[in-house]
Amino acid sequence: MPDTVWDITEPDAPALYGAVGPGVDRSIKPDIHHNGGRALYTRPVVLPGQTEASISLARSAATGPGLQVAAPGRGGATNSTVFTHGTSNATALITREASRVFDILEAENPDSADAPLPDPQYHPLLVRALLAHASSWGTWEASLRRDLGLSGQDVRRQLTALLGYGRLDVSRLAAAATNRAVLVAGGHIARNERHTYEFPLPPSLRAKAEWHRFTITLAFTAPTVGQLTRYRSAKVYFSTPDMSLAGGERSDAEHNAVRRGSLQHEIVQGSRAMSFVDGENFPIHVECMDDAQRLRAGDTIRYALVVSAETAEQTSNTIHEEVRDRLRARARVQGRIRP
């Protein structure tokens, strides 16, 4: 790399050219991160006595770095490409992943012993929830705490404005594993109602002081009020997970911010031994209440829910089968949930 160019971020770090949050009413924005291409900046010349300097983007369309994309060619050529970067690139790549998830949801269930996937009316919300569900801060939190010199009780709120729900891991998108069970559900809820979903706790996690993680994601169609700052006329959310039963603590996004939008994504992880009896469930309570105005009687809000439990492969590689067996036993009475 020439000395006239600065590469000022670590590989796979959040891009400096993207906008940061928070969003409306301090909600989480951006929702998730994906690859938008790397950018190079010209090295500024700092004159004696100056305390600040501005940097500008280097011309790198012909040589990169960035994402190689199709571009208009000379003389009508149809094979020309350039290197670009930006959030539009990330949006296009996430749209491709979303299309793949739609294909999975719309495919026929090959095993009649399993409950069917939620009705197609819930698929757009399920896709949004599944994209967030496969996202996390990963190593970003530790590296940004160090690089930005962050400390104190306000760190998580500051990082939430920058990172949102984290980076999308496409290898985890809409996929389970032997050591990870993923359940999906969809429904309609009215004001002051509560819907309770019960995630079967895998016996192989009981009384083991090993790392494990529960991830819960909820997306809903928020009715809007255009004249008010609080744009949601009503809100849907899941109540605080049972940290004692889960044997862990919240991580990633700040817990107050996750309820301010229409996408709630929470991770509870830890290494404390879980104490539960065989056949016990991990409850998730979905609730609805008024926000900017009163939701009219008879009106309901559509939502989608994704829940998963996982641990390291060396701890257990039977979680998926354990949860699946429990769900198959009650599939006749609960038709909108599937591992």
Class of secondary structure makeup: alpha+beta
Q: Give a count of the beta strands, DSSP E runs of length 2 or more.
A: 14
Largest sheet: 5 strands, antiparallel
Low-confidence stretches: none
| Helical content band | 10-25%
Distance between the termini: 48 Å
What does this structure look like?
The protein is globular, with a radius of gyration of 23 Å. It has helices at residues 87-106, 123-133, 140-148, 155-163, 243-246, 319-329, and strands at residues 5-6, 41-42, 67-70, 81-84, 135-136, 167-168, 180-189, 194-200, 212-220, 234-238, 249-251, 263-270, 281-290, 301-311. The protein contains six helices and 14 strands. It has a domain at 96-329. It is 19% helix and 23% strand. The protein is of the alpha+beta class and 339 residues long.
Structural features:
6 helices, three-stranded antiparallel β-sheet, single chain, 339 residues, five-stranded antiparallel β-sheet, alpha+beta, 19% helix, globular
List the helices and strands and how they pair.
Layout: E1 5-6, E2 41-42, E3 67-70, E4 81-84, H1 87-106, H2 123-133, E5 135-136, H3 140-148, H4 155-163, E6 167-168, E7 180-189, E8 194-200, E9 212-220, E10 234-238, H5 243-246, E11 249-251, E12 263-270, E13 281-290, E14 301-311, H6 319-329
Antiparallel strand pairs: 1-2, 3-4, 5-6, 7-14, 8-13, 9-12, 9-14, 10-13, 11-12
Helix pairs in contact: 1-2
